[in-house]
Request: fold
Amino acid sequence: MMKNDIYAASTLFKGKCTLTSKDYKQILNLATENDLIYMDPPYQGTFVNGGFRYYEDIEFSVFVDSLKTLTVRNIPFILSYDGRTGNKTFGEFLPSHLELTRIEINAGRSSQATLLGRNHTTFESVYLSKALVKRLNYNIDGIFKDDAETQISLFEFEEKSGKSIVAYKFGDLNKIQKDKLSGRSVLSKEFKESLYKLHNGRCFICFGSFELRYLQIDHRVPYEISGDDAAIQKNPDGFMLLCGSCNRAKSWSCEHCINWKEEKDPAICKQCYWGSPEDYLHIALKTIRRLDILWEEHEIKSYEKIKALANREKTSLPDFVKRVLAKNTLHVD
Reply:
């Protein structure tokens, strides 16, 4: 019953917090640099089709302005905002001018999708403010990649009433020593910049051009397989820079590979597309060859022409491209 939940929450927080019911902007104005704000407003789009549980009148532009004010005031904050389940995305990413660090967390199977007979995984986004990242004094790319089960995880517990509650559990930030957290090396900003220059600002998988902040440092051989190596930071050949989309695609593929689950052989990873896209023998132990192509800026017109030709022949774009490539490589030895 809701009554029991309210009493349980009251017992837990009594004498430890102050509850208010005000416009969120008024509360944010009270914050100082010594505070840490956590915000969990409703995702954009969740109040559509039966959103009686959510408050609708949160204007995106006003909310962004409030976050910008916090950034200018150097206030540390954490924000849960957008997310996705299956092919459905809730909300747009927050604008880059806020200088936030976005982390996508695998929250597990969607309970709502399960009730509807679908097997979809929910991913939730957490944004860290520039002030918070600076205070923690470590590179987010090096901490939250591959090691999410140590730093950010979901755990379930049962309260006295028997109700199960799922909550986030963060790593102990007091355990940060020099360049390590939970035994794992933190990759410096300078190291990321050197990779960026080495690969001309391109994602190593799709070869798209991105600003530095939109690329993430990735171990060629996942940390889950190889562990940490004191000398690895000195060897850029063991790392790649990946865009967010390719990084998520690699994570999903690796986590469903038998080598990840059982063998844990680094040599197998080094022969995989996700570890060595420039020269590989398999993709997650399957005999597959893959070609990721992006058309950028002035190339868009060429893409539209190819798409139009594929539509004219009533074939999918990938099949059309493969057929054209095959036709033009018949006489290549």
Observations:
- The first strand starts at residue 37 and ends at 39.
- Residues 300-333 form one domain.
